[in-house]
């Protein structure tokens, strides 16, 4: 009986350690110190600096290939894609002038599965679009994805959105705050949703690549590890 | 005569029961092992092969669970940890005596406890379920009972 109790105690201890380690990775990861904020911003800046930005478009709008990225800032699969696959696309194709990428808002689970989801979705997407008015949409979106929290947990608050904005030194906060109230930006978010529905978008991320040879949807595998090869082959097909 | 025959009969029945218990552990462990091996393969080779019934953000709910922050433990895929657990459980069946039974029960208990936590995360944090993860959780629930009984009842007596 003592041995049984020993095994149970040891097992409970191992479970507690495992849960402790796992829980450590659950919350959003807003940088806590100035050094962490600077390090994250430097990472994002090194990815984007020198690439033209206009509205939600990154790269030369006249590039032979244009990618439309239907996404949701709160979507964890979009985070996977944005942090794992997109950087190589930006480095290899956008920076070199071969392609551009335009972000469009599309809401699925965020709006459908959580209370107040639509309002939260609208506020987060408008916040990013407002940064886009200053040519900084991708800085805002990248930082948001890096600091993305537990979906539907209510972490997307005005304070969280202000915190992201506060990490972009080039962003004029007063103008950004004013733009948050601009109904045109909300209309743009809603229009993106409609465009997505018309294009047959059903989930996020959904990626369409358009080139001289036509338009193709990227395979769903682009969110997977090593997913860039799926994007590269789609680029080749439309170029 | 009757005083010696009865215990012998009971002993044979008990021995059969214990062998049956070990076989049941073997079968359930193999099911769990195949499940964990598949999830580990999917983790390293992409989510495209997953056949999943649920949906989340327009993708399969398994994909959502597998790409969530809880799919890894300090960078190590949970599926791989499960696979290691099932292999250890299988190996414990080859270890004679109380040590083997203790290892089997301990591993099953750890797996059961952690899969309980992961199922809680699926329900309340990820809001999506992965059928393969639930299958593994089911296997571990059965295994914790079987290995627990096996540990308490002891080894099949030699014939």
Short description:
Helices cover 54% and strands 12% of the residues of chain A.
Structural account:
Chain A is of the alpha+beta class. Chain A has one domain: Glutaredoxin. Chain A is built from ten helices and six strands, in the order H-H-E-E-E-H-E-H-H-H-H-H-H-E-E-H. A six-stranded mixed sheet of chain A has the order 1-2-4-3-5-6. In chain A, a hairpin with a 2-residue loop joins strand 1 and strand 2. In chain A, helix 2 packs across helix 6 and helix 5 packs across helix 6. The longest helix of chain A has 22 residues. The N and C termini of chain A lie far apart (71 Å). The mean pLDDT of chain A is 89. Chain B is mainly α and 159 residues long. In chain B, 74% of the residues lie in helices and 5% in strands. Chain B has five helices and four strands. Chain B has a two-stranded antiparallel ribbon with strand order 1-2. In chain B, strands 3-4 form a two-stranded antiparallel ribbon. In chain B, a hairpin with a 2-residue loop joins strand 1 and strand 2. The N terminus of chain B is likely disordered. The chains are: A alpha+beta (239), B mainly alpha (159). Chains A and B meet through helix 1 and helix 3 of A and strand 1, strand 3 and helix 4 of B.
Topology summary:
The complex is a heterodimer of chains A (239) and B (159).
Chain A: H1 2-23, H2 34-48, E1 53-54, E2 57-58, E3 65-71, H3 76-94, E4 99-105, H4 109-112, H5 117-132, H6 137-146, H7 158-166, H8 173-180, H9 183-198, E5 206-211, E6 214-217, H10 228-238
Parallel strand pairs in A: 3-4
Antiparallel strand pairs in A: 1-2, 2-4, 3-5, 5-6
Helix pairs in contact in A: 2-6, 5-6, 5-8, 5-9
Chain B: H1 2-45, E1 55-56, E2 59-60, H2 61-66, E3 72-73, E4 76-77, H3 78-92, H4 97-126, H5 131-153
Antiparallel strand pairs in B: 1-2, 3-4
Helix pairs in contact in B: 1-3, 1-5, 3-4, 4-5
